[in-house]
Write a structure and sequence with these properties.
- Residues 3-197 form the Calcineurin-like phosphoesterase domain.
- The protein is built from twelve helices and 15 strands.
- It is an alpha/beta fold.
- It has two domains: 2-244, Metallo-dependent phosphatases (Purple Acid Phosphatase, chain A, domain 2), CATH 3.60.21.10; 249-414, no CATH class.
- Strands 4-3-2-1-11-12 form a six-stranded mixed β-sheet, with helices on one face. A six-stranded mixed β-sheet has the order 5-6-7-8-10-9.
Amino acid sequence: MFTFIHAADIHLDSPLRNLSQYEGAPVDALRGATRRAMENLVELAVSRKVDFVLISGDLYDGDWKDYNTGLYFVSQMSRLREADIQVCIITGNHDAASRMTRTIRVPDNVFVFPSSSAGTFKFDKIGAAVHGQSFSGPAVKKNLALAYPDIIEGYYNIGMLHTCATGREGHAPYAPCRVEELVLKGYDYWALGHVHQKEVLYENPFIVFPGNIQGRHIKETGAKGCMIVEADIMGGNTVVEFNALDVLRWEKAGVDISDIGDSYQVVENLCMELESLLEENQGVPLAVRVELYGRSAAHENFAARPMHWINQIRSAALDTGGGQIWIEKVNLGTGLPGKNTALPGGPVGEIMSYIDEFKSDKEMLACLGESLNPLIRKLPREMKEFSGIFQNKDPEWIAGVLDSIYPVLLDRLTGKGDIE
């Protein structure tokens, strides 16, 4: 029986996005998040006394700005060497040899697989053989797995591969392969990298994406970490356990404002949702995207003073979370309740009918969105950066805006005054 850690996509010193834009945001936490997650990985390896650690590509986020990134990595690998823990690495598209202009000597407990062809690193004492190949460039389009070595009889065989597999949304189609091809290699475990969401593609043998160890933006929600794998060569059993390593977690919180006429009550309902999220994530600091949706009279307040309510939400989040919750963005996708089932006649009816036709014509929506560019350029920077309101290149967003102002415009044109 032996134990190893399978991690990938560390993206060391990669910046976290969209959280340093307002007072109270965790600037220091953002700057060091990937390093602290890396430290958690090392501490886990030492505390669990694992036999070795596998890093399946994208250790770095691209070329270093200076040598500090490399020196930091060396310091962490030295900690593992002191604990007699070997590390095997394949490079991925972000840290391929051709992308890195700086290099630095690594401790002798670190083995980096070559990029010219697939190779094997053997742990003779425990009977494990690790096969892998690094990326030679930032865009490898061929199926690397097909040329991986045959199994070594009597050993537990592990394949390290940086791949999109059969394709994953949001990830470039690098080193594509099919699950069936990996199974046919006869390996006991496939340690994949490149996809940032943890996923078990197959269980006999295990073919696993561990995900990245620290989420960096709102598209990387949920717990992030690594896999701890216990392997029994004699019995042929493999047990895989996910272990979270992230120090700040990205989540989404949605609130349906339907039937809530008071804007402050909407914020109170959001606070309850945020409390639940913090509890579900066991106190890990959260970066949350808030999405308000539905139709109620409260929409008029949000539409009239968006920055006021966005900052009310930020303030409520800081207070509710005791400084452990920050708002990444607020999307105001609300609308007023429809009050008229039939359009009035005359000029008002013609105008409203024209808006209905406009919403169904993508070319007209695109033209309208383009016409907003001069106005948006004149807006204060904070209005353009915060809240995600301005997506004028998206026809669906333009149609949503027209839909949301429809009831307000109708009331103004018919002279009915304020919405109740």
